[in-house]
Amino acid sequence: MPELPEVEVVRTGLQRWVSGRTIRRVDVLHPRAIRRHSEGPGDFSARLTGASIPYVSRRGKYLWFPLASEGHQGPAEQALMGHLGMSGQLLIVSASAPPHRHLRVRMAFEETDQELHFVDQRTFGGLHITALVDDGAGGLLPDAAAHIARDPLDPLFDEAEFIRRTRLRDVEIKRLLLDQTLASGIGNIYADEALWRARLHGRRLGSSLRRADVAVLLQAVREVMSEALAQGGTSFDELYVNVNGESGYFDRSLEAYGQAGLPCSRCGAQIRREAFMNRSSFWCPSCQRAPRRRPSVRG
DNA sequence: CATAGATCCTGTATGC
DNA sequence: TGCATACAGGATCTAT
C-alpha cells in the first residue's frame, strides 16, 4: 500500500498497537525480505529480540520502529526500518490463525497472542535495522532515509526549495513528483491525480513550469493526499489494506488514475492512458494540455 | 553530470 | 484448456 496516505494509515494502526510492546521472537521466512540487512537473518532476529518499541514513525513511504533496550536511557539509537514496496503489508494477526501465503517475517511480542506479520507478494518491500541520526530539526531519522525529502503535508516541508529544484530540471514533471529526494510520499496514483487537479500534463518539463504552476501542483498534491488519508487510502484489492486487513475507499474518488476511456468529470473528454516507466499514466487530453514533443538530440 | 530506460519479483487478467 | 503477453501501488541501478 505504497503511497503516503496508505503508509500513514498503516503507521497509525501500528502506533496504536505496538507502542510500548517488547519483541519476544522474530522469524525470517524469506531472506529476500531482509536483503538490506547485510548481517543476515540471525543477526536481524538477535538484535530485535528483547527490544521494545516506544513509537512508530514515518518519512515519505518509509516506516520505522525505534528500538529501545532494557537499561538504556535516552533516545533510541537504532530502528527497525520498513518499506512496503509494491505489495508489502504489516498486519496484526492472531498467532493461531493460518499463516498468509506470502508471510515473509513474523514478530511475536511479550504479553499478547497477537503477532506482527510482514506479508509481501512481490518482495520489493523489506525490513532492516539501521542507525538513527539527527534529522536537523530536533528529531531522529534512520540513516537509510537520510536522502528522502519531507512530504508535502509535513509542516517542515520546504516548498520554496521544491519549486526551485523542480524548475532547474529538464525532466518530466511526473517523474519529478515520483522523485522521493525532492518531495516524498507521492507515487503513481497520487501523481496522476494531482496533475489532473492542477491541469498540468505529466510530460511537461520541470524547467517549463512557472513558480505558480508548481505551487498549484503542490497544493493539489496536498489536497488529494489529505482526502485519501481521510478515506483510509486507496485499495483496489486485498493487497492494499490496513493493519487489520481492511481496505480504504479512495479508489471511488479517483478522477484520472485507472480511468482510461471514461469521461473526464470536468470536461467530458475521454481519459487517456500511456506507458510510463513500465507502468501507466492517465490524463485528460483536454484539461491537461500536452507539451510539444521534445526535439530529438539529433534534430 | 544528467537523463531515460531497465530491472528486481509474483501474481492476475486477457487474448489467441 | 493451455500458453503467451501485458500489467501492477516502488526504488534504484545502468547505459548513454
Describe the structure.
The protein has 299 residues and is of the alpha+beta class. It has two domains: 4-145, N-terminal domain of MutM-like DNA repair proteins (Alpha-Beta Barrel); 159-283, Helicase, Ruva Protein, domain 3, CATH 1.10.8. 23% of the residues lie in helices and 23% in strands. Strands 2-1-7-8-6 form a five-stranded antiparallel sheet. Helix 3 packs across helix 6 (211-230) and helix 5 (188-198) packs across helix 6. The radius of gyration is 21 Å and the shape is globular. It binds a DNA duplex (16 and 16 nucleotides) through helix 5.
Structure summarized in a few sentences:
The chain is of the alpha+beta class and about 300 residues long.
Under CATH at level 1, the class of the largest domain stands as Alpha Beta
Note the overall shape.
globular
CATH architecture of the largest domain: Alpha-Beta Barrel
**Could you name the CATH topology of the largest domain?**
N-terminal domain of MutM-like DNA repair proteins
Instruction: Please provide the count of β strands.
Output: 12
Number of domains: 2
Mean pLDDT: 94
The chain-level structural class is: alpha+beta
CATH homologous superfamily title of the largest domain: MutM-like, N-terminal
| Strand adjacency order, main sheet | 2-1-7-8-6
| Regions with little confidence, pLDDT below 50 for 5+ residues | none
- State the helix count: 6
Order of helices and strands: HEHEEEEEEEEEHHHHEE
* Major sheet attributes: 5 strands, antiparallel
| Relative strand content | 15-25%
Distance between the termini: 42 Å
Summarize the amount of helix as a percent range.
Answer: 10-25%
Q: What is the C-alpha radius of gyration, as a whole number of Å?
A: 21 Å
